[in-house]
Amino acid sequence: MAITGSTGGREGWSSRTAFVLAAIGSAVGLGNLWRFPAEAGNNGGGAFVLFYILCVVLIGLPVLLAETLIGRHGQSSAPESVRRLAKESRASKHWDVLASLGVLSAFLILSFYCVVGGWVFYYVGIFFSDLVQTGITGGAFEGRDPAEIEALLPGLFGNGPLMVGLDLLFLAVTYFFVARGVSGGIEVMAVWLMPAFFFLLIGITIYGAFGGEFTESLTYLFTFEPEKLTGPVMLAALGQAFFSLSLGVAGMITYGGYVGRNVNLAGTSAIISGADTAVALLAGLCLFPIVFAAGLPANAGPGLMFQTLPHAFQSMPGGSLVGILFFIMVSVAALTSSVALLEVPTSWMIEKFKLTRIVSSALVALGALALGSLAALSFNMLADFRPLGFIPLFAETNFFDTLDGVTAKLFMPIAAILTCIFVGWIADQKLIDSENGLSGGLHLFWRFLVRWACPLALAAITIVGIFPDLFA
């Protein structure tokens, strides 16, 4: 059901609230709950966090608004929306490359993202089994050696069939929601699961505040020490702000195509980016008190969620219950993002090939499963396979890391740079002005950011991605 008369007869969001929740779900994912705490831990805490917030406001939010207004104006799949705006602006239709690159990125990310989603499902099962054995009040993994707990993830990596099966399970759940449509599937999921996600996140954060080292975590995350604000830290914060909002994958262009004309995009984009940032900060306040209370290091990197945290739950009252609730919460965040990733190429296939939604989403899901299976097996049976070994940047990366690297270091930032150039310099500014919901000084400031600050910042992310030792 579309907002009456607002999406040209296309299926769309039933309300502004539904769009906001779906868009927040698209942005909020493993990047907030997994990558942000790991990046904060590896980059000195407060200096990273404060610069990250600044980057969200000055870089992330302007690009988010630029992507959304393209979709709302075009009322189509991402590439077609760009083509329509380009045609009305008397510009080349080939600017659709920015959206096509985003669609490809969404598909590639979906293929390995569901592998990581499978890890989350695995830990839900592990903690459920432990909860049955130890009860609600007991600590997690009672009687088990810490080394044994930390070995759970490597043990999973070594089991190829299980990795592929978990990938299939996570992808199947993602497909279920997308195949049901925008209002009947994606919106229903967002309206029900996003409030549940926030309830769990706030609840576990309160638990950590009373049962963990909350004051130490606040100090760690929000104490600004100027000497720690180095070039690499600033670039890491900039990159986190960009990836956290899921920019460069045509997601917000696609979701914007379902938005009615009665929605103010500037205010809505601010809500989305604000909620995404709040989730990232809450994730830090959720994880670090538990980690610090257990006397474990904050700079555990990617292993923070899957190795350090399960170990920390061992020493906490009700650790098994909190553990399963935590990973259920992470599952919800991962699903809302994977649904958005699947919707991007599905929307394109529906429009390009005139296929039904069920068939289009199934074909995309099958393609993602094929690539995802190779990504899952790259931790075991295909560990020595280097798909792009002839390129120095990817000479030592397995299939999983190659998919991640190609999208994060090349496709996503390039697509975002092209978006800024297209919206800031190429598209008819009267059309842009009619869509962005800004006026006066804010409008001029946004245009300056999109034209100058955002492309330069995104270029820095691209250069560092290609030449990682340049600013080390």
TrEMBL record:
Compartments, as annotated in UniProt: Membrane
Parts of the chain that traverse the membrane: none
Keywords: Membrane, Transmembrane, Transmembrane helix, Transport
Main location: membrane
InterPro entries on file: Na/ntran_symport, SNS_sf, YocR/YhdH-like
Topological category with respect to the lipid bilayer: Multi-pass membrane protein
Listed GO CC annotations: membrane
Pfam families named among the record's database cross-references: SNF (PF00209)
Name by which UniProt lists this protein: Sodium:neurotransmitter symporter family protein
Organism the protein comes from: Croceibacterium atlanticum
